[in-house]
TrEMBL record:
This is Branched-chain-amino-acid aminotransferase. PANTHER family: BRANCHED-CHAIN-AMINO-ACID AMINOTRANSFERASE (PTHR11825:SF44), SUBGROUP IIII AMINOTRANSFERASE (PTHR11825). It comes from the Bacteria. Keywords: Amino-acid biosynthesis, Aminotransferase, Branched-chain amino acid biosynthesis, Pyridoxal phosphate, Transferase. Its cofactor is pyridoxal 5'-phosphate. It is an enzyme of class 2 (transferase). Gene3D superfamilies: 3.30.470.10, D-amino Acid Aminotransferase, subunit A, domain 2 (3.20.10.10). Transmembrane segments: none annotated. It comes from Planotetraspora silvatica. The modification N6-(pyridoxal phosphate)lysine is found at K201. Its EC number is 2.6.1.42. It holds the Pfam family Aminotran_4. Pathway: Amino-acid biosynthesis; L-valine biosynthesis; L-valine from pyruvate: step 4/4; Amino-acid biosynthesis; L-leucine biosynthesis; L-leucine from 3-methyl-2-oxobutanoate: step 4/4; Amino-acid biosynthesis; L-isoleucine biosynthesis; L-isoleucine from 2-oxobutanoate: step 4/4.
Length: 372
């Protein structure tokens, strides 16, 4: 598979270094974007071309654009970290590329080759490398996405798509002190159904989740927890993060049933936990067990995980009928150990023994732009 050459048309006037530094002091999450983006068009017959790196900016959209009406769109999220040796490395980008293909397949969209996905991310990171934060815990969040660009109101898969990568400096999703999350268990609404699109990273799943999240906030909670759609009994995930249940030295995460998102952080933590000597497994976990095991003390910690927020402790649970605390309601030691271990691999403070970090701004990169 050949990777289309990326044509470079950089911004004639990128943000000044002073303004950029101001943004990097306190970037938040998803508020600020770098100077450029990469776009690749796909059309039936012609495939993936042309590929361009252009100034970040609005995309023209026809009122009859198929995505606006029928939501044929998928996305990814991955982070690039500044390393002590000056390198800029992404965490397991090949996994994001593969999941992007799986999501696209489910949504009847073309599958972007893994190498092209990575080349597009690399081109953007290399061009906008001054935007990769250097403060501890901060990183550059990449948001690759793809949507139908064809117009028409007939319901069918489009024959024309645009793949875009944008980048946003971030200090993390739940930045600041580590405050355990309170969660609301949605029993009225569901996020995903068997045979549906729950395992695809697609906008429609998020639209379906917003009422549940709004209820969680109305109940005074931080996040919503989803149950399976059929029995409303099995715990699936929390907001846009996967969940882990800690029983002393044993950690368990809900098994992939097809209606929850197969998180890369989730998969990585299963591996990392075993490396650290914990027993780690995937199983079905019921809401009933969550409550019972919290009450009898056998469930010692619960945490959520995902690219945007890393590892976040869950301290309390609320349902329409009851509420309870997990452990002592404070961040647990297994949670914090895994959080640190993952963070250290990403920041370069610990050895990357599994080859999870991929350098993204190598010199001599194909189609490399002028240094600046
Ligand atoms: C992206 C996402 C996750 C976490 O996946 P990571 O690869 O770990 O970032 C979990 N749940 C949902 C619904 C998601 O969209």
């Amino acid at each position: 598979m050949t990777v289309p050459a990326i044509e470079f048309k950089p911004a004639s006037r990128p943000l000044s270094a002073e303004r950029r530094e101001e943004v990097l002091t306190s970037p938040g999450f998803g508020h600020h974007f770098t100077d450029h983006m990469v776009t690749i068009t796909w059309t039936e017959g012609a495939g993936w071309h042309p590929a361009r790196l252009v100034p970040y900016g609005p995309l023209p959209i026809d009122p009859a654009n198929l995505t606006l009406h029928y939501a044929q769109t998928v996305f990814e999220g991955l982070k690039v970290h500044r390393r002590p040796d000056g390198g800029l490395a992404a965490f397991r980008p090949e996994e994001n590329a593969r999941r992007f293909q799986a999501s696209a397949h489910r949504m009847a969209m073309p599958e972007l080759p893994v190498e092209t996905f990575i080349a597009a991310c690399e081109a953007l990171v290399r061009q906008d490398r001054a935007w990769v934060p250097s403060r501890p815990g901060h990183s550059l969040y990449l948001r690759p996405f793809m949507f139908a660009t064809e117009s028409g109101l007939g319901v069918r898969a489009a024959r024309e798509f645009l793949f875009v990568v944008i980048a946003s400096p971030t200090d993390g999703y739940f930045a600041g002190e580590i405050r355990p999350l309170s969660v609301w268990v949605a029993e009225e609404y569901v996020r995903a159904v068997p045979g549906g699109t729950g395992a695809a990273k697609t906008g429609a799943n998020y639209a379906a989740s917003l009422m549940g999240q709004a209820q969680a906030v109305a109940q005074g909670c931080d996040q919503v927890v989803w149950l399976d759609a059929l029995e409303r009994r099995w715990v699936e995930e929390m907001g846009a993060m996967n969940l882990f249940f800690v029983h002393g030295e044993r950690i368990v995460t809900p098994e992939l049933t097809g209606s929850l998102l197969p998180g890369i952080t989730r998969a990585s933590l299963l591996t990392l936990a075993r490396d650290l000597g914990y027993e780690a497994e995937e199983a079905r976990i019921s809401l009933h067990d969550w409550r019972r095991d919290s009450a009898d003390g056998s469930l010692t910690e619960v945490f959520a995980c995902g690219t945007a927020a890393g590892v976040a402790p869950v301290g309390s649970v609320k349902t329409a009928l009851t509420q309870w605390t997990v452990g002592d309601g404070r961040p647990g030691k297994v949670t914090m150990r895994l959080r640190e271990a993952l963070g250290e691999i990403q920041s370069g403070a610990a050895a990357d023994t599994r080859g999870w970090m991929r350098e993204m701004a190598k010199a001599g990169h194909p189609g490399r732009p002028a240094d600046r």
